[in-house]
Structure formats: C-alpha cells, structure tokens
Amino acid sequence: MMVERMDCSVEKEVLLEALMSSMTSNVYFETFRNIPLIKEMTEEHAILLFSCMKEKRFEAGEVVYHAGTPAEGEMYLILDGKVGVEDESGHRYGDLRVGGVFGLFTFLDDKRNHSATVQAEKDTVVLSLERNYFDLIALEEPKLGQQLMYFMFRLLSEKALKVEVEYAHMHQFALGRKV
After folding, report:
1. Which among 62, 20, 18, 35 has a CA at the least distance from the CA of 127?
2. C-alpha angle with apex 171: 168 to 157, nearest 5 degrees?
3. pLDDT tens for residues 91-131?
4. Which end of the chain has fewer beta carbons closer than 10 Å to its terminal beta carbon, N or C?
5. How much is the pLDDT for 2?
6. Which fold has domain 54-174?
7. Calpha distance 14→140 (Å, rounded)
8. Angle value at C-alpha 131, between 83 and 152, nearest 5 degrees
9. Is the separation of the CB atoms in 114 and 69 below 8 Å?
10. Sign of the CA dihedral 41, 164, 75, 149?
11. Where are the domains of the chain?
C-alpha cells in the first residue's frame, strides 16, 4: 500500500510539472504573466489561473456581446487586440487593450443583463472564465478559488477607484475649481 501512495505522489508531481511546462510554453502565457495583477502572483498561482481560463478569438468587427442581452456568466481578459465598448444607446465610451477585463459584473451577477456592447476592433485574443467552472474550482480547489476571488476583488477595487477619481474631477469641474 505504501508503494502505491509513493507512485501516486510521484505521478502527481510529474503531471504538475508537465502542466507547468505546457502553460509556460504557451505563446500568451508571457503576456498574461506581465499583466499587473498577475505579476503580483506567485508563478504557481499564475499558472493555475492561466490553466483555468479558455482561449477565445474574435475577428475584427465581431461582437462579443450586445448591451441589454442576458449574461452568459463569463468574464474576459484581453491578451492581444482591442475591443470597443458602447452603451445601450450606441454611445462609444472607451476601448480596452491587452490586460483589459470585461464581463466581470455579469460574471458575478448572472441575473444582470450586459450593460455594454463589446466589439472587437481588430483581431482579438482573450482568455475567458465561465462562472460554472469557477464555482467548481471554488469547491474542489479552495486555494485556487480564493486566488480567483482575490483577482476579481482587485479588478473591482481598481474600477471603484477609477469611478471615485472621475467623480472627484467632475465635482471639482462643477464647482469651477482646477483639477
């Protein structure tokens, strides 16, 4: 019995080493690893997070999703390319490039409709994470689930800070003060 456990342990280490090698040799892993939030992670956590996400490609002009449509429970991280973001009325209010994340709110709240239309402006490669898969990870690999939650918390914190700064600038502008 003891020999079987040792073999299983060695086999697990070999499989983990193979996974790490395949992840780090992926063309997009280096881009992923250089995204600021990912840079803060250990190599092992970055590899595990990368392995949980699915690579998807969108051609220039292709719509990822439309504003007002039901959520698919998926968030996206841009590895290459650029997407444009428009509100429901068609007003363009920004674009996202490498390292940009979209779909986070509908990932967290699948009862919510998409608040924006996201369209690839040029050929774009993203990593996606499905909510169902995240739920499974959180149950079966709590440490990795915790790392994913930390990643999403940091994204939400960055968005909240950006809104606070924009609000402060608008407030200062409305009062006629220099920003």
Report:
1. 35
2. 25
3. 898 999 999 999 998 998 988 999 999 999 999 999 999 99
4. N
5. 47
6. Jelly Rolls (2.60.120)
7. 21
8. 65
9. yes
10. positive
11. 54-174
